C-alpha cells in the first residue's frame, strides 16, 4: 500500500493485528487501571491457542485489582534496582541499555515520522513503545497512511522480532507474573504468527 493514496482503508485482519499490538502496548506501558481491566474482562477468544490465552487474560483481569497490579508491575519491570525483566530491546540484544539497537530505532523513527511521546522518560526501545509503533504503522497513525507490508516487515524484524519473542517467553515464565503470565503467552504466540505471516508474504 502506498502512503500517498487519499482513500486508504485498513483490512480487517490488519486492524486485528493493530488492535493486538495496541493491547500489548497498553498493558506493558504501565499497570492497568480499573477501566482498562473492565474492558479486558470482556475479551473473548476462540479455541485456538491464542484464543485460549486471550480468555485466560480476561479471567486474570476479573481476578485482580489495580492495587495488586501496581505491585506485580513493579516487581516485574521496575524493582529495587532492577525488575525481574528488563523490557528493552537494547538490553536483550546487547546486555546493556542505550546501545546501538536504540540508535538504529531512533533513526528509523525519524525516517518514518514517529515522534517520542511527550513526558515519556523510558528509552524508545521499551516493548510497550515498540508495540504502539507497530500498531501505528499498520493503521497509518503517523500521518502518511498505513505502511507498506515490506516496511512493516522491516521494522518488525529489525526492532521487534529479533528479541521480543524471548521477552514474552520470559514474561510468561516470570515468578512475579500472575496477570502478566497470559500477557506473555499472547505476546509469544502473536510474535510467532507475525513472523510466519511475514515469511509467507516475502
Describe the 3D structure.
By secondary structure, this protein is mainly alpha-helical. The two termini are 15 Å apart. Helices cover 63% and strands 0% of the residues. It has 10 helices and no strands. α1 (12-29) runs antiparallel to α7 (127-139) and α3 (49-62) runs antiparallel to α10 (180-201).
Write the layout of secondary structure elements.
Blueprint: H1 12-29, H2 34-41, H3 49-62, H4 66-78, H5 89-94, H6 100-112, H7 127-139, H8 149-159, H9 164-173, H10 180-201
Number of strands: 0
The major β-sheet equals: none
How much is the average pLDDT?
A: 93
Please tally the helical runs, counting DSSP H or I stretches of 4 or more residues: 10
Shape: globular
Round the Cα radius of gyration to an integer and report it: 17 Å
Q: Are there runs of 5+ residues with pLDDT below 50, and where? A: 1-7
Percent helix, as a range, is 55-70%
Give the SSE order as H and E letters.
HHHHHHHHHH
Structural class: mainly alpha
Beta-strand content bin: under 5%
- Distance from first to last alpha carbon: 15 Å
In short:
This protein is an all-alpha fold and 202 residues long.
List keywords for this structure.
mainly alpha
Amino acid at each position: 500500500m502506498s502512503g500517498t493514496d487519499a482513500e486508504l482503508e485498513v483490512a480487517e485482519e490488519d486492524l486485528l493485528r493493530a488492535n493486538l499490538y495496541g493491547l500489548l502496548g497498553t498493558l506493558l506501558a504501565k499497570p492497568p487501571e480499573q477501566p482498562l481491566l473492565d474492558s479486558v474482562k470482556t475479551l473473548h477468544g476462540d479455541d485456538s491457542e491464542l484464543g485460549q490465552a486471550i480468555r485466560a487474560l480476561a479471567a486474570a483481569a476479573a481476578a485482580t485489582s489495580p492495587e495488586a497490579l501496581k505491585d506485580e508491575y513493579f516487581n516485574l519491570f521496575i524493582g529495587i534496582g532492577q525488575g525481574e525483566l528488563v523490557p528493552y530491546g537494547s538490553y536483550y540484544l546487547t546486555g546493556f541499555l542505550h546501545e546501538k539497537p536504540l540508535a538504529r530505532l531512533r533513526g528509523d523513527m525519524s525516517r518514518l515520522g514517529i515522534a517520542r511521546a511527550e513526558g515519556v522518560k523510558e528509552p524508545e526501545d521499551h516493548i510497550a513503545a515498540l508495540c504502539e509503533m507497530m500498531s501505528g504503522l499498520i493503521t497509518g497513525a503517523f500521518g502518511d497512511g498505513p505502511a507498506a507490508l515490506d516496511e512493516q516487515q522491516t521494522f518488525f524484524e529489525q526492532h521487534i522480532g529479533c528479541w521480543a519473542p524471548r521477552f514474552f517467553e520470559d514474561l510468561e515464565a516470570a515468578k512475579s507474573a500472575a496477570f502478566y503470565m497470559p500477557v506473555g503467552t499472547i505476546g509469544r504466540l502473536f510474535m510467532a504468527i507475525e513472523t510466519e505471516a511475514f515469511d509467507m508474504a516475502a
